[in-house]
TrEMBL record:
Residues 108-294 form the D-isomer specific 2-hydroxyacid dehydrogenase NAD-binding domain. It comes from Flavobacterium arundinis. This is D-2-hydroxyacid dehydrogenase. Keywords: NAD, Oxidoreductase. Coiled coil: none annotated. Belongs to the D-isomer specific 2-hydroxyacid dehydrogenase family. It comes from the Bacteria. The keyword Cell membrane does not apply. Residues 7-319 form the D-isomer specific 2-hydroxyacid dehydrogenase catalytic domain. SUPFAM superfamilies: Formate/glycerate dehydrogenase catalytic domain-like, NAD(P)-binding Rossmann-fold domains. The keyword Oxidoreductase applies.
Length: 321
């Protein structure tokens, strides 16, 4: 049985699938050729990440497709309900990349509070001619310890963010439509741990009280989670991070808030117009930028590959029994 991993898969994932008796194809097929490739090569399983889209047209064109797998959390690039109506299994790996995304959130937070987004642009240009001037410009950084982090969306990734924040000595407040409260276990290297109970609050309270805000919600069908009104409700000088999905922050309103000083800095791993983000966002001096790499660590990709392999083997074994 053949598996097309069109957006790539880790070596450990390939090994696990091959050991289970599958042939893994890692050829990158152009979006418009995916359906034809699946049919021509008798592919039974297609695995994607965020690049390849598996919509109704591909599902209809590939009647022998048995499983669609998403390496990661969000499945907005797959017509999930329609596929399941057609009897196709749709799977993802929600737990595999949580820690990787959470660590990237803090990479952006540290970058923001110490002006690294700007220093890394200006040091190569002026470091040898204006060292003292740059030193003065970046001398007013702040610490994360003791500050309040607001987490909007308190699922697996939001909770991983909370664990790191608690370990840093931050106060954590959270909002989630579906979670009333969560017990966060913070583990230490020596086997010790603490449990911290965090009740969720209305989003309005998060906006009002947080020094920094990070979003971990799915793609939105209607409107933004954070727009001009939400920025206005925030504390002056807030920092905001989005490593979840593009389109949940109004980028025009974000630019306005950055220009006015309402928002001190932003960290963006995802964008409204991927894969061609707006030039105003890319060039803004107060935005720390990464190209949608939240789950792109070696450890996460290993976990994603092996988890997909286990799910696929289990599903097909069940179907064939």
């Amino acid at each position: 049985m053949k598996i097309l991993a069109n957006d790539g898969i880790s070596t450990s994932g390939i090994k696990a699938l091959e050991e289970a008796g599958f042939e893994v194809i890692t050829t990158k097929v152009a979006q418009e050729q995916v359906a034809n490739y699946i049919n021509t090569n008798n592919v039974s399983v297609v695995l994607v990440r965020s690049a390849t889209k598996v919509r109704k047209d591909i599902i209809d064109a590939c009647p022998d497709l048995k499983i669609i797998g998403r390496g990661g959390v969000g499945m907005d690039n797959i017509d999930v309900d329609y596929a399941r109506e057609k009897g196709i299994h749709v799977i993802n790996t929600p737990a595999s990349s949580s820690d990787s995304v959470a660590e990237l959130v803090f990479a952006h937070l540290f970058t923001g509070v110490r002006f690294l987004y700007d220093a890394n642009r200006n040091m190569p240009l002026e470091g040898d001619t204006n060292f003292e001037g740059l030193k003065k410009a970046y001398a007013n950084g702040i610490e994360l310890r003791g500050k309040t982090l607001g987490i909007i969306g308190f699922g697996r990734i939001g909770r991983s963010v909370a664990r790191i924040a608690l370990g840093l000595g931050m106060r954590v407040i959270a909002s989630d439509k579906f979670v009333g409260n969560a017990e966060i276990r913070v583990d230490f290297y020596n086997g010790q741990f603490i449990n911290v109970d965090i009740p969720t609050e209305p989003m309005e309270d998060i906006l009002k009280h947080a020094d920094f805000i990070t979003l971990h919600v799915p793609a939105q069908e209607n409107g933004y989670v954070i727009g001009a009104a939400e920025f206005e409700a925030m504390k002056d000088g807030v920092g905001i991070i989005n490593a979840s999905r593009g389109g949940i922050i109004d980028e025009v309103a974000l630019i306005d808030a950055l220009d006015s000083g309402k928002v001190a800095f932003a960290g963006l791993d995802v964008f409204e117009e991927e894969p061609k983000p707006a030039i105003q966002v890319l060039m803004h001096p107060k935005i720390s930028l990464t190209p949608h790499i939240g789950a792109a660590t070696l450890e996460a990709q290993d976990r994603i590959g092996t988890e997909l392999a286990e799910q696929i083997a289990s599903l097909l074994k069940t179907d064939n029994s």
